[in-house]
Amino acid sequence: MAKISKIEAQKRRGRYNIYLDGHYAFPVAESVLVKFRLMKGLELDKEQVAAITTADAQARAYSRMLDYLAHSLRTESDIVKKLRDLETPEQFIAPILQKLRDQHLVDDHEYAASYVRTAMITSLKGPGAIRQHLRAKKIGENDIESALAQFTPERQRENAAKLAQKLFKRYRSQPRMRQEQKVRQGLLTKGYASALFDQVKEAVEPTEDPEEEDALLAQQAEKLWRRYRRYEGRARVQHFKQGMFRRGFDLDRVQAWLDEHEEELP
Are 157 and 196 a contacting pair, CB within 8 Å? Predict the structure, then answer.
């Protein structure tokens, strides 16, 4: 048996040094001090000391999770990962997680709801991308569905329209067909349903400028026609048309360009 001869407060708030028989023995958190009713003169055996130091290790791990949670909302999977990254003993993880749940410091349902609200306001992510993020965080499907109910069809169309408008500007130097392909794919990549492009297209698609489109077609056509000069006759025309189509040009307009320049093409 050893007797507590001194309890000394550390500079770090909520931490104490325990001295046994006049010698420094171990540190403890205030919660451990209270739990084990540690006071000067109390005698402790080896088993009690082991239990106290184990409880303190768990208390320190819990305290680190409080610091981790101070920066932003976290999911249960975030907490488990962080604890394991810190090499926390496995037997501490479940009790720490339960304590955080009981104190409403970790709540996957609230995390999902908060994430959806933030994503709707601060980003142009669609419901598919949001769902993917929440699944990666190991949020339950019921919580995901409940959170996504906030992202109404009307709000999805509004955000999809903003994204489509932004994408049309990005691809404005490309043929109209390619613009539409790129914008549709952009909406899909961001997690919107394919049908949403058709719903917002008319409202956001820039007015087509035939002169600008013809100038772009002519520029690309001249480059490609030279590129396929190793082919002759119909083979050259076929490769040329395929190349122009891949770049998003309408084949009727491509043929019109060929007809117009037939005599001057090398």
Answer: yes
* Encoded tokens for 3: 């007797």
Site of tokens 């956001």: 204
Pairing of strands 23-29, 43-44: unpaired
CB contact at 8 A, 163 and 186: yes
Quote the DSSP letter at residue 8: E
pTM of the model: 0.73
- Per residue of the chain (266 residues), give pLDDT as tens: 888 999 999 998 889 999 999 999 999 999 999 999 999 999 999 999 999 999 999 999 999 999 999 989 999 999 999 999 999 999 999 999 999 999 999 999 999 999 999 999 999 999 999 999 999 999 999 999 999 999 999 999 999 999 999 999 888 878 888 889 999 999 999 999 989 999 998 888 876 667 677 777 788 888 888 888 888 888 888 888 888 888 878 788 878 778 877 666 66
Residue 85 host element (H or E): helix 76-85
**Spatial separation of the C-alpha atoms in residues 249 and 51, rounded to whole Å:** 76
- Count of positions (residues) in the chain: 266
Token pair listed for 235? 């083979």
Long-range pairs for 93-98: beta carbons < 8 A, 24 or more residues apart: 95/58, 96/58, 96/61, 96/62, 96/65
CB 218 within 8 A of CB 257: yes
